[in-house]
UniProtKB/TrEMBL annotation:
It comes from the Bacteria. This is Heat-inducible transcription repressor HrcA. The gene is hrcA. Belongs to the HrcA family. Residues 108-328 form the Heat-inducible transcription repressor HrcA C-terminal domain.
Length: 345
């Protein structure tokens, strides 16, 4: 939370009203508008004095082309931390969200969640997939496709299925593939993927004679089949084009930088991972993300998980001038519904 001197009741109400009006109208807010909408019995002169004090605190700014004022990043921070009142998503919307959050495996559920976040917020929905260390092996099957290509059907503990086509350095006959699959399934079910790869290498070094050949084949196949997805597959993004019509970020160069960040994903993923162990919703406003392309947007995030274990983070990326009282409950509700869906599987 931003460190600012304590604001009295009138200052808080005027700041709340000004930011709410600016979010609604998209224009600088003048003292006369605040007199009409704040519910306070104060004169325009008194309002102007209070606004000047808030500007001195760095909570407001005065655009050169207008007599009104707009909130700064610090102003928005005070607003979301101490002035905003959010209500939970209505029950009928929550039920609809749960019914539309569908998928036969975890990956499809994550994709549905990103699409729903975008549709319900009208901005960009992002979901960080579970980190590799949380992926636990259940069983695997290998299907030969041709001389040096094998289809690996990998089933994880959460019920998700990953189909991967493996390009191998040498051919494997069907009996060898079956033997390796049986060995992996019998010895490594219930272990994280990364641990399996490490353990196989360690066992290979210690192996003798008859086990050496099988372990060598197991290591080669496991290196391909059990390697976690690259960073680009670790972040699901939906609705990027919704930002193209947003007034606050209509500058072509800003949009180009933002879309490059969406394309590369790694930087956004790192911001999301900073909130993995946050309690509830966490909000990054503008430059608080530490990423230049995101200086004109806000990122509202929340963790999701299974049985008390945090698996990943989801959120909404939208303009700083967003309807926080709507977006925050949407993010909270989607995180809760996704957690329930993954647990229920």
């Amino acid at each position: 939370m931003t460190d600012v001197p304590a604001l009295d009741a009138r200052s808080r109400q005027l700041l709340r009203t000004l930011i709410s009006r600016h979010i609604h109208d998209g224009a600088p807010v003048g003292s006369q508008t605040l007199v009409e909408h704040s519910g306070l019995k104060v004169s325009p002169a008194t309002v102007r004095n209070i606004l000047a004090d808030l500007e001195d605190l760095g909570l407001l700014a005065s655009p050169h082309t207008s007599a009104g004022r707009v909130p700064t990043t610090q102003g928005y921070r005070v607003f979301v931390d101490s002035l905003l009142q959010c209500r939970p998503l209505p029950q009928n919307e929550m039920q609809k969200l749960r019914s539309e959050l569908a998928g036969t495996d975890t990956r499809q559920l994550l994709g549905s969640a990103s699409e729903l976040l975008s549709a319900m917020s009208h901005f960009v929905g992002v979901v960080a997939a579970p980190k590799p260390e949380s992926l636990v092996f259940r069983y695997i099957d290998f299907v030969p496709l041709d001389a040096q290509r094998v289809l690996a059907i990998l089933v994880l503990r959460d019920g998700s299925v990953q189909n991967r086509v493996l390009e191998l350095r040498r051919a494997f006959d069907p009996s060898s593939l079956e033997q390796v699959a049986n060995y992996l399934n019998a010895n490594f079910a219930g272990l994280p993927l990364a641990q399996i790869r490490r353990q196989l290498v360690a066992e290979l070094r210690a192996a003798r004679d008859e086990m050496q050949s099988l372990l060598t084949e197991a290591v080669e196949l496991a290196e391909h089949a059990l390697t976690p997805d690259e960073a680009n597959d670790a972040l699901l993004v939906a609705g990027q084009t919704r930002l193209m019509g947003v007034q606050a970020i209509s500058d072509v160069e800003r949009l180009r930088e933002l879309f490059e960040a969406f394309a590369h994903k790694r930087d956004i993923l790192q911001v999301l991972e900073r909130t993995l162990h946050a309690q509830g919703v966490k909000i990054f406003i503008g430059e608080e993300t530490g990423l230049a392309p995101l200086e004109d947007v806000t990122l509202v995030t929340a963790p999701y998980g299974r049985d008390g274990e945090v698996l990943g983070v989801l959120g909404v990326i939208g303009p700083t001038r967003m309807a926080y009282e709507r977006v925050i409950p949407v993010v909270q509700a989607t995180a809760s519904a996704l957690s329930d869906a993954i647990t229920g599987r």
